[in-house]
Amino acid sequence: MSLQGKKVAILVENNYQELELWYPLLRLREEGAEVKVVGPAARETYLSKHGYPALSDLTVEEVRVQELDAIIIPGGFAPDLMRRNRAMVKLVKDGYGQGKVVAAICHAGWMLVSADILRGKKATCFYSIKDDLVNAGAQFLDQEVVRDGGLITSRNPMDLPAFCREIIKALQEK
């Protein structure tokens, strides 16, 4: 179990993309990481785009960023709701500022834009929000996974194997 002792927050909001939340959550737990689902409210059920439930473990205000090793942001339409929550945006910005691994897939790039952490960084995302990332200062690369320091991004659910491999690798390096 290569990630024993590592602590990871995976963000949740309604309309999340099922695979982009559950695949990393289960894969990182399989590696021994302690993964908590973090939403605007604790112990609340959030529904995916297709109605699949995810129960949050903690509210974003309960999370202590200094205790985390990584923050993962799934896509779907949830990031558009997440970015309206100042505490969620602050968690991402502070985590990145403290050198934590910050991983975003698909539409989760919207959270990186709102957290203002893309200037001068290489990143990828779902093609429809490419302009948002570029306008926020990112150099867009159309690749299954892009890592720029502690920032890891991917395009869509088909990229999840590469996305998770890169997150695991980054956490093992810490």
Keyword list:
alpha/beta, Rossmann fold, seven-stranded mixed sheet, two-stranded antiparallel sheet
Helix and strand arrangement:
Elements: E1 7-11, H1 18-30, E2 34-39, E3 45-47, E4 53-55, E5 58-59, E6 70-73, H2 78-82, H3 86-97, E7 101-105, H4 109-114, E8 122-123, H5 130-135, E9 139-140, E10 145-148, E11 151-154, H6 160-173
Parallel strand pairs: 1-2, 1-6, 2-5, 6-7, 7-11, 8-9
Antiparallel strand pairs: 3-4, 10-11
Task: Describe the structure in your own words.
- With 174 residues, this protein is of the alpha/beta class.
- The chain has one domain (7-169): Rossmann fold (3-Layer(aba) Sandwich), CATH 3.40.50.880.
- The chain has helices at residues 18-30, 78-82, 86-97, 109-114, 130-135, 160-173; strands spanning 7-11, 34-39, 45-47, 53-55, 58-59, 70-73, 101-105, 122-123, 139-140, 145-148, 151-154.
- The strands form three sheets. The chain has a seven-stranded mixed β-sheet, sandwiched between helices. A two-stranded antiparallel ribbon has the order 3-4.
- Strand 1, helix 1 and strand 2 form a beta-alpha-beta unit.
- Helix 1 (18-30) crosses helix 6.
- The protein is globular, with a radius of gyration of 14 Å.
